């Protein structure tokens, strides 16, 4: 199970990232055209020929002992070094040679979700993404009340106060019945249907929400959710440090681990993406309108009075 | 709970037996006549299943996890009891998920404790008699049943249970999984649980960490097939 794949040979000081015994790296394989036939046969023999796009186990942006004493090094060694690693390795095995090979992680998630009729790769793909996002949501000596002014304004509007938000987030994490995740997300006002746009959108529709998701599910599959923060409430995330005391884990996470710098910057990015999509919609709408007026000109000519009145 | 810990296991069992049914349902001296539930006692000490399951796991699993399901189940039932006569439809509906989860947790764990027995008290001895025959008939052999349960238990996403059940309607044995704390009955009204294995991480994490298959391999050494056989004989006759 711990066979290192070439994809995981990122140079790093971490003891958990093993190097491939043959020294093959994904770059040398993707440049397959430069290889001699003999080399290609060798690679095929190793079963590595189709590794055109594999995912890597990204290390957390801090040493494994950096979240002590809240989240122990032992927890990180298992949670990142075993659980997260296994998701990456199983995902890579599952997608080799399938239609999902070569897609981005986000694309694999959305495609393998398959409108609720999950393909086997979904759980591993989503869990890889969720864990990357979770590690980045934390930092040593984090927590406290540090959302940016802009974000705090929206938190006050949508949750009444920062405290109101914290309570809703904690309650959601406490009442996720089973394994799963809780998300703090910025939600665009679009309808959750392809191409559907809320015809009477206002800024009030774009809001902050707290949502729970079971097992591997994440907001990417719902469309128009921009996750800002997540907490892993699978028992493996806290069992070594807190055993059955999930509420203590949740409180400590909020008070001492959340990286508000990261949350703030995700919020800024989310707003920028949404604004750009709105500008794009506006541009399309104007184009449509222009085409409409040009196309419909002869018909309008039937009612010359109306036109005259309008002028 | 403080008073309870002063009692020895045997005295406690006697006290409980006097006024409790199989699942610990208690006709509480409740002015409103509401039945509440109590944590059932175990028939063995916490450390008696070692080395298959550590005493630490058993103690937290029983005293903390199961107790929390019982507490929250009773809380939800009390709220339901208040909402029903008022015709408070939205509260009644809102309580359903907490009742299913915590009630399911209580039902499943109550069965699970009976499914286990220390090795020296017959834990791990394969079933004999009619259940043994039925397993051979439906799965080929006892070993094949074990393989099937282990495979389905290991493949279960997230938290849940893997079951050996009796399908009373079709008169056959089935292996099923349920998510979270869903009891087996949610998979079909004719299904009777004979054996349920908890594959929530809390059931094995302190000892087996991320290696759920090892937990599944080892738990067979402490499975109480006498209990499963009794249920099977009663339900299939």
Automatic annotation (TrEMBL), chain A:
Chief localisation class: plastid
Alphabetically ordered keywords of this record: Chloroplast, Iron, Metal-binding, Oxidoreductase, Plastid
The keyword Nucleus is annotated on this UniProt entry: no
Annotated region (Disordered), positions in chain: 1-30, 278-311
Every Manganese/iron superoxide dismutase N-terminal domain range: 54-138
PROSITE patterns xrefs: SOD_MN (PS00088)
Subcellular location: Plastid, Chloroplast
Catalytic activity: 2 superoxide + 2 H(+) = H2O2 + O2
Cofactor: Fe cation
Signal peptide per UniProt: none
One Gene Ontology MF term: metal ion binding
GO cellular component: chloroplast nucleoid
Basic and acidic residues composition bias: residue spans: 278-294
Enzymatic class: oxidoreductase
Pfam families in the record: Sod_Fe_C (PF02777), Sod_Fe_N (PF00081)
SUPFAM superfamilies found in the cross-reference section: Fe,Mn superoxide dismutase (SOD), C-terminal domain (SSF54719), Fe,Mn superoxide dismutase (SOD), N-terminal domain (SSF46609)
E.C. code: 1.15.1.1
One GO process term, biological-process aspect: response to light stimulus
Domain Manganese/iron superoxide dismutase C-terminal intervals: 147-266
UniProt-listed PANTHER family: SUPEROXIDE DISMUTASE, SUPEROXIDE DISMUTASE [FE] 2, CHLOROPLASTIC
Protein name in the entry: superoxide dismutase
Gene coding for it: LOC107463113
UniProtKB/TrEMBL annotation, chain B:
Gene3D superfamilies cross-referenced by the UniProt entry: Fe,Mn superoxide dismutase (SOD) domain, Iron/manganese superoxide dismutase, C-terminal domain
Quaternary structure note: Homotetramer.
Domain Manganese/iron superoxide dismutase N-terminal: 36-117
Reaction(s) catalysed (UniProt annotation): 2 superoxide + 2 H(+) = H2O2 + O2
Domain Manganese/iron superoxide dismutase C-terminal: residue ranges: 127-230
Domain of life: Eukaryota
Keywords attached to this entry: Manganese, Metal-binding, Mitochondrion, Oxidoreductase
Cellular component terms per the entry's GO annotation: mitochondrial matrix
Entry EC number(s): 1.15.1.1
Protein name stated in the entry: Superoxide dismutase
Primary location group: mitochondrion
Subcellular location field: Mitochondrion matrix
Function: Destroys superoxide anion radicals which are normally produced within the cells and which are toxic to biological systems.
Name of the top EC class for this enzyme: oxidoreductase
Cofactor: Mn(2+)
UniProt: Mn(2+) binding residues: 61, 109, 198, 202
Annotated family: Belongs to the iron/manganese superoxide dismutase family.
Gene Ontology MF: a single term: superoxide dismutase activity
InterPro entries, per database record: Fe/Mn_Superoxide_Dismutase (IPR050265), Mn/Fe_SOD (IPR001189), Mn/Fe_SOD_BS (IPR019833), Mn/Fe_SOD_C (IPR019832), Mn/Fe_SOD_N (IPR019831), Mn/Fe_SOD_N_sf (IPR036324), SOD_C_sf (IPR036314)
Species of provenance: Arachis hypogaea (Peanut)
